[in-house]
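Dear colleagues,

As part of the handover before I leave the project, I'm documenting each prediction I ran so the next person doesn't have to rerun anything. This entry is a single chain, and its sequence is reproduced below.
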Amino acid sequence: MIMDQTVVRESTRRSHREQVGRVITAMRKQIDQPISLRSLARIGAASPYHFTRTFRRVTGIPPAQFLSALRLDLARQLLLHSSRKVIDICYDVGFNSVGSFTRRFTQAFGVAPGAFRAMSQVGVQPLSMSGEPLSDPATNGAGHTVSGHVTKPADFNGVVCVGLFSTPLPQSKPVACTIAAENGEFALGDLPAGRWFLFALGLQLPILPHQCFYQETALRGGGQVVDVSAANICGDTELFLRPALATDPPILLFLPDLTGIAAIARDRRDRA
């Protein structure tokens, strides 16, 4: 009976992933068009209420937020890989107002669309291996500390960034971030009380400047909740690095200064 229940649960999860996958495919195809929740639920063959619950269970965020993230992610790609004007990109990805698009883009990436494109065109040579490694905030001796471990694929050769975010979508500046040690251990310190979401991002070596604008080959992991209070810290801090799935929300994270990451990469390369 236990085995039968396990098979049923896995079958249900697989069905939900396929259902959500169909909807995400439709979102991408109609990304420049307004899409109502009712229309998305119809594609998912469910009522709006049950569809929203299923979508959130699979992706971690509601459908509307996922669609907005897809639009910003596509805008990032168009800024990097095309010469289209910002105003054209705004409408290409489904925004009706340049002001609204600029505001949302800046909130996610930390810079306006035009500045983002200009910074990405600096060059694609490997980052100079200079500067000091990123300091571990756990050494500050203040606030709370969350520690854990990242399990990496056997063939992964790179640097793992770990961060806590205020939303289940990895975007904008994290509440705290650090670089995992070579053995996968990490610690995030000086944390305020609150409910945070833990993510890991794996960047393969060599690290090139364009990877801080668009993590095309980055591995990822996490998404779980970590509750920090004056009394204790509650949550799963074991992370497993893997390739991105179609149902993963885009990473709307801008890392304009990878000097510390580059220094750590240099040290690990020299030791190897």
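The CA atoms of residues 128 and 168 lie 33 Å apart. The beta strands are 144-151, 158-165, 176-179, 185-191, 194-204, 219-228, 233-235, 238-240.

All the best with the project,
I.
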